[in-house]
Write a structure and sequence with these properties.
Layout: E1 13-15, E2 19-20, H1 33-38, E3 56-57, H2 59-71, E4 81-84, E5 87-88, H3 97-101, H4 116-130
Parallel strand pairs: 1-4, 2-3
Antiparallel strand pairs: 4-5
Length: 131
């Protein structure tokens, strides 16, 4: 996608949005407590569940990958990658997809999420919507 944006000065990456919730960390209107309890993200007493292996993190932990993407020299020439847990996610192959889906918390990205054709469509739509 960076190549579509003008060449060497534009690098595009995407990252996993972690579920981050806690007292004062996110507005209560972000998600209803019932939905968070159903997802296993909120204890019955109302305390947030912290389980980084299941992508349930503090706000700081959840923001870490975005900050890493913005500042890491590792991404200087890594256009079109997907990042999670402060690293570039490995590509999940068709042969390993079932095993990957059965292991929550294992980093990885499916091919459609980093497909150049999808990036081109996203760029086109983004240009139309922001022009």
């Amino acid at each position: 996608m960076g190549a579509l944006g003008g060449g060497d000065d534009v690098v595009c990456v995407s990252g996993h949005i972690d579920l981050s919730r806690g007292s004062g960390e996110l507005p209560r209107r972000a998600l209803p407590d019932e939905a968070l309890r159903a997802a296993g993200a909120l204890e019955s007493e109302g305390r947030p569940v912290r389980d980084p292996a299941r992508q349930q993190k503090t706000v700081a932990q959840g923001a870490a990958t975005s900050v890493w993407c913005a500042t890491s020299p590792q991404l200087d020439r890594s256009d079109g990658v997907y990042c999670e847990n402060c690293d570039i996610s490995p590509l999940v192959t068709a042969e390993s997809e079932a095993e990957w889906r059965a292991a929550p918390g294992v980093p990885g990205v499916l091919p459609y999420a980093v497909a150049p054709e999808a990036a081109a469509r996203l760029w086109e739509v983004s240009e139309r919507l922001t022009a």
